[in-house]
Amino acid sequence: MNPQFDSIGKQFVDFYYKAFDANRSELAGLYRPHSMMTFEGVQLQSAEAIMQKLVSLPFQKVQHVVTTVDCQPTTDGGVLVMVVGQLKTDDDPPHGFSQTFVLNNDGSNWFIFSDLFRLVVHSV
Amino acid sequence: MNPQFDSIGKQFVDFYYKAFDANRSELAGLYRPHSMMTFEGVQLQSAEAIMQKLVSLPFQKVQHVVTTVDCQPTTDGGVLVMVVGQLKTDDDPPHGFSQTFVLNNDGSNWFIFSDLFRLVVHSV
């Protein structure tokens, strides 16, 4: 297990949302051909499919405000990260979101193996 | 990767919250000595430490209402699960929560390797 899991996870979260909010096409380098994303229940696999989804999201301005970041080590040296925060898009009111990542290392770089995103919207 | 990841994750979630809400001491069998839980930012390790925390939570009645469950396979045959839902305790108003699990199989039983829980409470 990676003893640096907490700082790796928190640095990643900081980098990820800054890049997402500034120019989300820059996130392409964080995904690999076998990366998986589940975005609002839709399953995507590969950096190409994930980026196609992210860049097509229909807003111009976006800001992620992180509320909490919790990290745990995985058995294979990776890092499990759960984020709770608020998403502000264009001039809409903020929405809560929850996002979970599994980060792995290919020997020289960290990449996203798993990514699950949900707006926190309850029907009751 | 386990091709049954989606049904395994969803059956687990159904079982877990039913057991939690009926008699949470029954959850002990789902954790192992090396299981990790991060509960509202507090890190716990071992079934014993986790159960001590869960049974000491200061409410009599509890109900988890699940809004969404998203599952992905892990590289070692396990299942990554992200849950968004609402927690109703005693006569308090419901609170949103987010919980992420990593489930592993010891050859005959599924157990929780990772568990991260947060109430969804934003300061802004």
Automatic annotation (TrEMBL), chains A, B:
Pfam families named in the record: NTF2 (PF02136)
CDD domains tied to this protein: NTF2 (cd00780)
Compartments, record wording: Cytoplasm; Nucleus
Domain NTF2: 8-119
Transmembrane segment boundaries: none
UniProt xrefs under SUPFAM superfamilies: NTF2-like (SSF54427)
Keywords: Cytoplasm, Nucleus, Protein transport, Transport
Keyword Protein transport among UniProt keywords: yes
Highest rank taxon of the organism: Eukaryota
GO biological process: mRNA transport; protein import into nucleus
Single GO cellular component term: cytoplasm
Principal location listed in the UniProt entry: cytoplasm
Function per UniProt: Has a role in nuclear-cytoplasmic transport of proteins and mRNAs.
PANTHER family hit by this protein: NUCLEAR TRANSPORT FACTOR 2
Protein name per its UniProtKB record: Nuclear transport factor 2
